[in-house]
Design a protein that fits this description.
- By secondary structure, the protein is mostly helical.
- It has a domain of about 100 residues: Orthogonal Bundle (Cytochrome p450-Terp, domain 2), CATH 1.10.230.10.
- Strands 1-2-3 form a 3-stranded antiparallel beta sheet.
- Strand 2 and strand 3 form a beta hairpin.
- Helix 3 crosses helix 6, helix 8 packs across helix 16 and helix 14 packs antiparallel against helix 15.
- The two termini are about 40 Å apart.
- The model has no long low-confidence stretch (mean pLDDT about 95).
- The chain binds s-citryldethia Coenzyme A.
- S-citryldethia Coenzyme A binds next to loops.
Length: about 375
């Protein structure tokens, strides 16, 4: 209790440990990130999204036979139930894509016989189904908005390749698939971030995995979290030309606006994922696409400005969302799919944490300090 009799309130649960886990270490002081002990740099260099999904769901890397079996399971689950494909096709074209994705996942549950079976085996089956189908659903949302409707998944491709195939109806080039696969890997897991935490809160009532994932998708949508990637690109478009960057950023900061893609509740130094994504921008500076070159120059100018102004002094550095815009634009991915793609990346992390939390489940129910009146007198309406 504080002197005034009030308990210490940790707004936003800042700095509060609510559980422990060996899935992911986020070292905000040194800017390091580990999935089950493997550094993000090691995984980015040597692994791929499907292998990392296996790691997150099983706690270890697979051998060749296990990875092949896992890939086959993902491939089998890639097609969407007709009712889900239909919902996406019939959704209003101006509906928020994260609303469409959240609705699609809810409808997936209606047609999954495992939906309310909370056994370990059923939860693993659902995790594989969800890991596979979120990428299909995001591809389908894009395909429907591109006017080609629901393209049946090509199960010969992984999540990244199939996403492009469902978005465009064409087989993607290998370089684009490699870049997107890395982006999916980099976004796959991040400890107790807001969307993972909200999934855990839902699961901790002993609800079900689909409900937990639906909560997580709704949480990821916000611009303070997963929605920042699209917002950061919108800012780059608003800046327009690299030479406008300084005035734009200075005006925004003077107006107490947040610069999307910068700052982090845990990282008080460069987000290691942003460092890896930034490597791609060195290549994009020489892009044949003028818009991509322009966005890349703006992003690099904004990065330098923000680090000079708020880096060491305020601990505000680029985060995972900042450089996605130029990278995804170069891949032909429309900005309205950035956050849905983030969800399709993060689904293994969400499922891994929920299944682990259930092993020593505890209802999440924090306290709220009451600061109102007590025993207030009830005045009949005729006298109010
Ligand atoms: C993700 O948690 C995770 O792990 C999330 C994530 C994951 O992988 O799951 O890493 C993904 O969500 C990354 C973050 C994406 N969001 C953004 O880029 C949105 C812009 N960033 C800010 O809104 C902010 O930095 C947060 C929300 C990310 C973190 O904010 P905090 O910890 O609540 O800090 P704060 O808002 O209280 O800021 C502290 C100070 C404030 O100034 P004062 O009011 O004290 O004067 O820093 C300032 C803020 O105004 N500040 C910024 C800023 N971020 C913080 N000022 C300008 N631009 C910013 N981006």
């Amino acid at each position: 209790m504080q002197d005034n009799g009030k308990p210490k309130i940790e707004l936003g649960l800042e700095g509060v440990y609510f559980t422990e886990s060996g899935i992911c270490k986020v070292d905000g002081v040194n800017g390091r990130l580990y999935y089950y002990g493997y550094s993000i740099e090691t995984l980015a260099e040597n692994s791929n999204f499907e292998e990392v999904c296996y790691l997150l769901l099983n706690g270890r890397l697979p051998n060749a036979a296990e990875l092949s079996g896992f890939r086959n399971s993902l491939a089998q689950e890639r097609p969407l139930p007709d009712e889900v494909a239909g919902l996406i096709e019939d959704s209003p074209k101006d509906a928020h894509p994260m609303d469409v994705l959240r609705s699609a996942v809810s409808v997936m549950a209606l047609y999954d016989p495992d939906a309310n079976d909370n056994s370990d085996a059923a939860n693993m089956r659902k995790s594989i189904r969800l890991v596979s189908r979120l990428a299909s659903a995001v591809g389908a949302i894009g395909g429907c908005r591109n006017g080609i409707g629901y393209v049946k998944p090509d199960s010969s491709m992984g999540a990244a390749g199939n996403f492009f195939y469902m978005l465009t109806g064409k087989k993607p080039d290998a370089e684009a698939v490699k870049v997107l696969d890395l982006m999916l890997l980099l976004h796959a897991e991040h400890s107790s971030n807001a969307s993972t935490f909200s999934g855990i809160v839902t699961a901790a009532t002993l609800s079900d995995l689909y409900s937990a994932v639906t909560s997580a998708i709704g949480t990821l949508k916000g611009p303070l979290h997963g929605g920042a990637d699209q917002a950061a690109l919108e800012m780059m478009h608003a800046i327009g030309r690299p030479e406008n960057t300084e005035v734009y950023i200075n005006d925004a900061l003077a107006g107490k606006k947040k610069i999307m893609g910068f700052g982090h509740r845990v990282y008080k130094t460069y987000d290691p994922r942003a460092r890896i994504i930034k490597n791609r921008l060195e290549i994009l500076q020489g892009s044949a696409n003028e818009e991509v070159r322009n966005l890349t120059s703006i992003a690099l100018a904004a990065e330098k400005l923000m680090i000079d102004k708020l880096g060491s002094s305020h601990g505000i550095w680029p985060n995972v969302d900042f450089f996605s815009g130029p990278v995804y634009t170069d891949l032909g991915i429309p900005d309205y799919l950035f956050t849905p793609l983030f969800a399709a990346s993060r689904i293994p992390g969400w499922c891994a944490h929920v299944m682990q939390y259930w092993k020593s489940n505890r209802l999440v129910r924090p306290l709220e300090y009451y600061n109102g009146e007590l025993d207030t007198q009830y005045v009949p309406i005729s006298q109010r």
